[in-house]
Amino acid sequence: MGARAIARAVSDLEAAGISTTSRIEEGRPADVLMAVAREIDASTIVVGTVGENPISGALLGSVVLKLVQRSSVPLLVVPATEG
Asked: Are residues 75 and 44 in contact, defined by beta-carbon separation less than 8 angstroms?
């Protein structure tokens, strides 16, 4: 996800009255998500699914699977919307 997409998501969340911060990290997604969650003492990790693309679906699936197996922080998986 590029910086513009993140900025758009932050803008949408703030427009809905949801306070948020963003950052871009490098590394293995599941490991980075768990490390940041611990660092900021997150109460929940929220991740989304992607569309029907088998390649990206497999990648996200592996990240979610690792999070489910190894995260001590509760996980919320939000399915992609159609369209």
From this structure: yes
CA angle 25, 4, 77 (to 5 degrees): 60
Position 5 scores a pLDDT of 86
Number of folded domains that form the chain:
1
Query: CB of 48 within 8 A of CB of 75?
Result: no
Nearest to 35 by CA among 70, 79, 80: 70
pTM of the model: 0.71
Cβ neighbours of residue 69 under 8 Å, at least 6 residues apart?
Answer: none
DSSP 21-55: ------S-HHHHHHHHHHHTT-S-EEEE---S-HH
Residue 63's domain comprises 3-78
Give the domain CATH number at 50.
3.40.50.620
